[in-house]
Amino acid sequence: MVTAKKPAAAKPAAKAAPKAAPKAAARKPNAAFMKPMTPSATLAEVVGATPLPRTEVTKKVWEYIKAKNLQNPANKRNIVADEKLKAVFGGKKEVTMFEMTKLISAHLK
């Protein structure tokens, strides 16, 4: 006895794309980071004397480090200080990038 092939069942319709989650409100920067702060005289030699937010001070210090090629080639997380940065870093010859932000914040008012 030969059975007839059953017609192929219709494929279910493709599932609708999941609904996109509602977009979160744009993240607002912390006001404390955006408040312009005046750098000390020693830090002003590196970033300038105009009041800047902390984030901009850090960016300018990194620009200085990269322009002068002051990262330790063996360990890029360490910064080898030149004379200007040594004054900012409290006389230390080499600091980590994490120490750097702490030492810089001491020079902001």
What does this structure look like?
By secondary structure, the protein is mostly helical. 37% of the residues lie in helices and 6% in strands. It is built from five helices and two strands, in the order αααβαβα. A two-stranded antiparallel sheet has the order 1-2. It is elongated. 14% of the residues are buried. The mean pLDDT is 86.
Short précis:
This protein is mainly α and 109 residues long. The protein has helices spanning 31-34, 41-47, 54-67, 83-88, 97-105; strands at 78-80, 94-96.
> How much helicity do the residues have?
25-40%
Largest beta sheet: what is the strand line-up?
A: 1-2
**How many beta-strand runs?**
2
- Structural class label: mainly alpha
Order of helices and strands: HHHEHEH
Strand content: 5-15%
- From the N-terminal CA to the C-terminal CA, the straight-line distance is 95 Å
How many helices? The count is: 5
Q: Let me know the average pLDDT.
A: 86
What is the makeup of the main sheet? 2 strands, antiparallel
Our Rg estimate from Cα atoms comes to: 28 Å
In terms of per-residue confidence, which ranges show pLDDT below 50 for 5 or more consecutive residues?
none
Q: How would you describe the shape? A: elongated
